[in-house]
Amino acid sequence: MKRDYEYIVLGLGGLGSGAAYWLSRDAGAEVLGIEQFELGHVRGESQDHSRIIRLSYHTPEYVELAKLAYDAWSTLQRESGDQVWLKTGGLDFARRDSRIPLDTYRNAMRACNVAYEDVDAREIMRRWPQFTLDDDIQGLYQEQSGIAMAARANAAHQKIARANGATLIDRTPVTNILTRGNEVAVETPGGTFSCRKLVIAAGPWSNRALGYLGIELPLEVTREQVTYFAAPRPDDFAPDRFPVWIWMDDPCFYGFPTFGEAGPKAAQDAGGKPVTADTRDFEPEPENQRGVEEFLSRYIPGALGPIIYTKTCLYTLTPDRDFVVGRVPDAPQVLVALGAAHGYKFASVLGRVLAEIAVDGTTPSAGEIDRFAIDRPILLEESPATSFMV
Ligand SMILES: Cc1cc2nc3c(=O)[nH]c(=O)nc-3n(C[C@H](O)[C@H](O)[C@H](O)COP(=O)(O)OP(=O)(O)OC[C@H]3O[C@@H](n4cnc5c(N)ncnc54)[C@H](O)[C@@H]3O)c2cc1C
């Protein structure tokens, strides 16, 4: 097997598969992707039927990046022939005094010329009688929101990366990284590989991979969970009749139409306990489950039904919940990507950005990603204050 590559991607979850795909469009057989488990494993962050994709974000930079995210998914759809996202429309809703002010979302979308609709409780219930809301609830509807089909999109990224000549190997943990001049040596139990540029996309294992370079970020890994419910009338929640939704308060809940399973999915955002990626278990947390059920019984009662299954999943949270994307200052031949537990929708565009930086040294999307630098002040603090609500 070839040992020396121009580019290596460490980690083939959502972001790493995106990077391998975009690198392979430029460099074909000069790309190696290395994954510690089997491709499609469920121990990381990216493997389920659905993730929310939306333009509705709290800063203009995220809104602009989200526009580019749709473009990147379209390119993948065109090249793979696989549908990887589905438009359903999206509803952000909350009480007027909620912890996550809808105005920041309105202002960011207005600044980026993104159309949205203000909808009050009565209008929400008129359009989607699945909701039962009090008068003081208001909402924002954005029609481009929908479902990023995570498991399918990962497979599509991997399929086309391979078709372009890239080598993707699984069940191969990277056990050390050494930088020497312009070279990077990547050690595995199957031998050492070398490259000119390494992309680290290690999700909840990021600090272990970065630790080989002497870097530790103030990350918190939490074990989260999502539940599919056998709603009595699952077709009431079909994607053409029911939007993706986010309850913009603390606690924050979110959910999906019936997609991939026999009923809708709902979850609490950032409601899980701190764990480590290697010692976490897969048992759902009953208290978290109760919170989701109470929320649904109050606001979306028809979505409740027997549990089809609850799936646990890891969040990798930065203190400000912003991504980490870009070069490592002391090792510029190494790039890092971390999605801060809302990054799936951006998996393909961040893959494109990483490939551009790796190949060209720069990206046309610098304006959108500069604020995600690995050496931004909050990531240099030992115990920074955290703010996970976005
Ligand atoms: C329950 C849940 C709901 C979410 N909802 C949304 C949503 O609605 N919208 C949204 O945009 N985002 C959402 N997210 C966040 C999003 O899914 C993540 O930001 C994104 O999937 C992170 O992808 P990743 O590639 O960074 O991590 P991962 O998918 O975990 O990939 C990292 C990969 O690196 C591999 N790896 C690590 N170390 C090594 C090593 N040393 N050697 C080899 N391989 C290694 C791992 O095995 C893993 O496969 C959600 C996340 C969860 C858990």
Question: Your description of this structure?
Answer:
- By secondary structure, this protein is of the alpha+beta class.
- 28% of the residues lie in helices and 27% in strands.
- It has helices at residues 14-27, 60-80, 102-111, 121-127, 150-163, 206-211, 286-299, 347-360, 366-369, 377-380; strands spanning 7-10, 31-34, 51-53, 85-87, 90-95, 117-120, 137-142, 146-148, 167-169, 176-180, 183-188, 191-195, 197-200, 220-229, 244-247, 252-256, 265-269, 273-274, 307-317, 324-328, 331-338.
- Strands 5, 6, 7, 14, 15, 16, 17, 18 and 19 form a nine-stranded mixed beta sheet that branches. A six-stranded mixed beta sheet has the order 9-2-1-13-21-20.
- The longest helix has 21 residues, at 60-80.
- The chain binds flavin-adenine dinucleotide.
- Flavin-adenine dinucleotide (FAD) is lined by residues 10-16, 34-37, 44-46, 51-52, 173-174, 201-205, 209, 224, 226, 267, 313-315, 338-339, 341-345.
